[in-house]
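[audit] Reproducing an earlier prediction to check determinism. Same input, same settings, fresh worker. If the tokens differ from the archived copy the diff job will pick it up downstream; this log only records the rerun itself.
[audit] input (323 residues):
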Amino acid sequence: MAVEAHRLLLAGGHRQQQQQQQLASAGWPWAGADEDRCATTARPSQHHHHQQQQPQQELRLHNASCVGVLAPRVSTIAAGGQMFLGDAAESDVTFGGGGAAARQEVTAVAPAPKRRKRAEQQQTPPVFQVCAADDVAAQFQQHIVDVNRLVFQQTANMWAALTELRRRQARQVVAAVEAAAATRLRAREEEVQRTARINGTLEERARSLYVEAQLWRDLARANEATANELRAELQQALDDQRTRGAPGAGADADDAGSCCRGGEDGGTGTSLARTCAVCGLSAADVLLLPCRHLCACAPCAGAARACPACGCAKNGSVCVNFS
């Protein structure tokens, strides 16, 4: 039984060594005996293919005879050359006749598989880490591309918005300038129209004044012609009266009576002819028209409506200067 147990232990150790060599040839860092280096690195090292695995420590069996029956569980070899027994309580194999010492040795080495399992669970295969690094790099590159595209789009949108805002402001400025110019032009047009209306009114007034001036000029000319004619007739009458002598005073009394009332003596006829027929105080120096009687003074001729000598309606008068 002891021989069979020894053979099984040797066979298990040889199989574990083959597995470690296969893992080392595959590039796994934890396949070797350097557990500290395997814990710090995550990528497979190339020099593992050239390094030789350290030989496992040979199991030193006690020279004493082993008593017991081989248990169903076999021992396992830990990394670094340590051997662990499956369960010392269930195994009946003793080495060197010392069962208590074997149990103590197995009990002292028992927590090693738990640490190994925990380390194996914490360590990630390098292939997956490389794939994850490549994925992270690809995602980071895609993220950079997306950010650049987003920045470009936002920049384009911002420039488009600024251009539209500038155009809108330009249109507003142009509209404001056009409105101000239109208002000023409208005011100017209204002022021009008002000035044109005033000019038209003034032109009409000027034409009417010109026509009125023409009428007054024609009337003045007519009055001047009438005055000249009357002056000539008066001068002729005076000349005729002078040419008549004193012997003809009786005949002249009738003519004087037509001009001033009455026929007095020849000595007083001239003085009566020159006296106003209305008031009898002032000299008669106004010729009444159209009867042409020289029988009133200036104040009485202005107040009279008809000739005081013949009673004819008066339509005008002419002042005569005898000096």
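[audit] rerun output stored. Observation attached for the diff report: Residues 98 and 304 are 188 Å apart (CA to CA).
[audit] end
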